[in-house]
Amino acid sequence: METEEIINKFTEFIEKDKDVLAKLNEQKTKEKSYLVIEYNKLLSFNVDIIESILESPEDTLKCMSIAAIQLNLALPKTFSIRVKSLPKNKHVNEIRVSDIGKFLVVPGLVKKKSDVKATTISSKFECPTCGAILTILQIDDQTFNEPSRCACGRRKNFRNISNDNVNVFSMCIEEPMDVIGGGVKLGQLNILCKDALTQAKIERKIYPGVKAEVAGILRELRVKKNGKKTCNLDWFLDANYIKIEDETFLDLNWTDEEIIKFKELSTSPTWLYDLRKIIFSDIQGYDEECEGIILQMIGWVGIERKTLDVRGNFHILLVGDPGTSKSSMLRIAQKFSPKAQYISGPTTSAVGLTAAAVKDELLGGWSLEAGALVLNHNALLCLDEMDKMAEEDKLALHDPLESQVVSIAKAGVNATMRACTSLLAAANPKHGSYSEYDSVFSQIDLVPSLINRFDLIYPILGSKLTEDDHYLIAKKMLSRKKEVTKTNERDFIKRYIAYCKTIDPIIPEDIIEVLSGRYKHIQKLKKQLLDQGKVSTPVTPRNIDILRRLTEAVARSRLHKEVTNEDADIAYKKMIYSLQQLGIDPNSGEVVIETVNKQLTKKDLVARIINIIRTGSLKN
After folding, report:
1. pTM to 2 decimal places
2. pLDDT band per the 50, 70, 90 thresholds, residue 189
């Protein structure tokens, strides 16, 4: 389309649409320098304008801005048009040289983001010889350009009299994991946000870990080496509009049919069994552990308080012998969670988990690149082989697991990033196999303070499996064959979990009384054990928060807006099961140090002797 035609057509569009015209007339009073146009409205009015935006965005958007200014002369010269709700047309790894100069809509996860800075887009210079005013556009972000010569013949020492400055910040998005195939690196794309996009109400909603769709013009960036330009090109997206996806799932839309199915599932007496059979159909013999992971995937909203916030996400640690389905549980949980990531401990560093200070390629200086804990804010992080991590990397987990924030002070950058992430971790015992006759704390290569960060700890033992379990495991594995992926079933579970996350149940006073009484009972049993000189699993006020998180997760999974007695009973049994696995039986008050009809290995006998010596030392 020609320039005049675009201006005339867009003028006609504004005049016909009363809502758009009213918004345009309000812009000056609201002190806005931009107008947001709906893609669908523009598409239904004129398809050619949309095609022109996609193919020649810079000229088309400039013509649209001119049309708006002509209708409202009070608008500033920097007034711009922004287009929203365009369909996604590119993933990061699909961008090629032919896309430079075109309008793209790219989805991704914000990996890093800089602070808001100022940059110069044009400068005016005065010639000392003839007094001529020269205007220079600052196209290169890396260098400040000055006039090369004046019409009078002067070639240098021009006086800079004014600069046209705008606010700017840069960020980097990484493509979602579900759009790539095996062996393909996750692509990253630098984004430049200027002018209106730097307003606090927009900029503050963008942080590492948040999902976003960025619409903008793809521009080339000449790569420099040793301060000199090379033949190599990179590209970045000059943002026009940014859509932030709500991570609380409140903005998702569900059909009436879906909600009816959700309620049918949640009201079933066997709702948790039904979820387990769909999600963990390949896991046999670890029913309680799988149900605990399902509740972790649903989680609780948490409490924000004036003094100290209470985290809603809870963490689970799976400990057991190699080959006992721990990694399979993590992989399955990652597939069925609305948002999740799987990582392996031996290949993970502290900065990979928290954040790293990196050079900003667009604006210079330093910015923070988020690690896995930050990127999975309000989501699930599956960490396998946790015991194989270096000691200094394990230390980086202490603060994020409890306070749900990552604090960084590197390269002159001081920042605190939110990391409300649920951690599902798996670890192997120090000596290769797990013994039921010794404490879990002495068998894992993790410090007790880190183990205590986990709300539920499940020993995954092969000895727990019955003969029928072994038979069913063998039958399932031998019956495996290539199947058509049941994406509909998986999507239904993902959407069900997302819908559960929108429920914020309250705990009535009578339920609070019941839970308080049960915690008091556990503490009484612990005291009895200590009076007898026996070792018990630590039970601290932290277990109260664990009980609350489980209770509200159960209520959420049943779509209850108010916690019931049955919800509290189920949650209490889940916590007691975990405590029993670690050595204390709240029903009898006895330490579990031997199992009937179980053949002891040499390592088990050694562990039992150590336990007896430890108990004798306490008595003395």
Report:
1. 0.75
2. very high
